[in-house]
Amino acid sequence: MAASLSLSVLLLSFVSLGVALPREAIFDAADVLSDSGFVSMSLTLEIVAETLLEQSPSATVFAPSDSAFKKSGQPSLDLLRFHFAPFPLPPPSLRLLTAGATIPTMLPGQSLTVTTSDRLISINNVRLTGSPIYDDGFLLVYGIERFFDPAFQLNRQRPGPDSNSSCSGRNHTASSSDSFDQAVQTLKSGGYSAVASFLGMQLSGVAEHGGITVFAPADEMVMNRLGDIGEYPAFFRRHVVPCRLLWNDLVDFGEGSELATFLEGFAINITRSGGVLTLNGVPVFFPDVFFNDRVVVHGVSDVLAPQENAVVHVDDEHNLFDPSEF
Questions:
Q1: What are the backbone dihedrals phi and psi of residue 282, each rounded to the nearest 5 degrees, phi first?
Q2: What is the C-alpha separation between 254 and 271, in angstroms, rounded?
Q3: pLDDT in tens, 248-258
Q4: Taking residues 109-129, what's their average pLDDT?
Q5: CA distance 319 to 233
Q6: Cα–Cα distances in Å, from 171 out to 211, 292, 315, 317, 322?
């Protein structure tokens, strides 16, 4: 099973993570909502804009109808956060998501779930308007007929018992599988050619038992941060975890939890900043870009660098990756 995205639009919003959405865009979106018959959400957007949107460089808002507000009353701030995703989701990207893919929200630790992924898209079993009511490339607003239920759950296959933080970076040997090739092809088509090429050459035999999780920075970020070719093996090793961890597994980890990687001595520290899950301080900007029975890929907004005072040891004798491949 796989979930893939065309991420070019998403990447633009994360080049400058500290830049907030302009107030003009928020007020423009509120005006369009009002003109489109979403008066209650229009007024609510203006009220919560400073709290929710002005701290984010981009967002997707799912706007319940006036009848939903009339039936449910004024929602709590937490319920409103559950209707905001901290990045833009244009229709082509939404249509590429398979049922079961998750979308993080501005409510810490809570995600939405795609329940259909054809022309008529639904999330948490609530249908979206076919086209955004408002779309300026950074802020998108979709209409929905009722509020999302934070308790909604979709039954799907979860990772096996080996998918946990106790996994260590041991060298596995297994034959290449079609499912692994799918991951490589998805990465190549989604703006991750550098990571895809590396995985295709170096990791086609390691996704066995508990599988692997790849935290993939986009090509632009990789090229900006890579130096000498001799650094490539260690660079990529620290972005791969020898466990299969879906988004729902990641958000279950407590603050300060650490994940071992294939780079000996390099760990990924899980924290949260403004409700956004971060890995060594780098936000996960789109989870579950790809997942199947062996491989999970999450998009991250930058490369994962060693944390301060961390000591990284590379055992050349048992190095999983061969520098001569590059």
A1: -100, 125
A2: 8
A3: 888 888 888 89
A4: 83
A5: 8
A6: 12, 21, 12, 12, 13
Cα–Cα separations (whole angstroms), residue 112 to 6, 148, 247, 270: 19, 8, 11, 21
Q: Which two tokens stand for residue 248?
A: 């729902």
How many C-beta atoms surround the C-beta of residue 240 within 10 A? 26
Average pLDDT over residues 40-53: 86
∠ CA 99-279-269, rounded to 5°: 125
Amino acid at 104: P
Of 175-179, 264-268, 311-315, the range with the highest mean pLDDT is: 264-268
Task: Tell me what pLDDT residue 147 has.
Answer: 96
- In this structure, the chain runs to a length of 326
CA–CA separation, 240 and 158 (whole Å): 19
Please provide the CATH number assigned to the domain covering 8-144.
Answer: 2.30.180.10
CA distance 195 to 204: 13
- CB of 243 closer than 8 Å to CB of 163: yes
- Angstrom distance (rounded) from CA 311 to CA 58: 35
- Return the CATH class of domain 178-325: mainly beta
CATH 2.30.180.10 residue window(s) in the chain: 8-144, 178-325
Examine the pLDDT at 113 and tell me if it is beyond 70.
Answer: yes
257's tokens = 């939890």
> What value does the mean pLDDT take over residues 195-203?
69
CA 190, 192, 195, 197 torsion: positive or negative?
positive
Q: Helices 193-202 & 178-189, crossing angle to 10 degrees?
A: 160
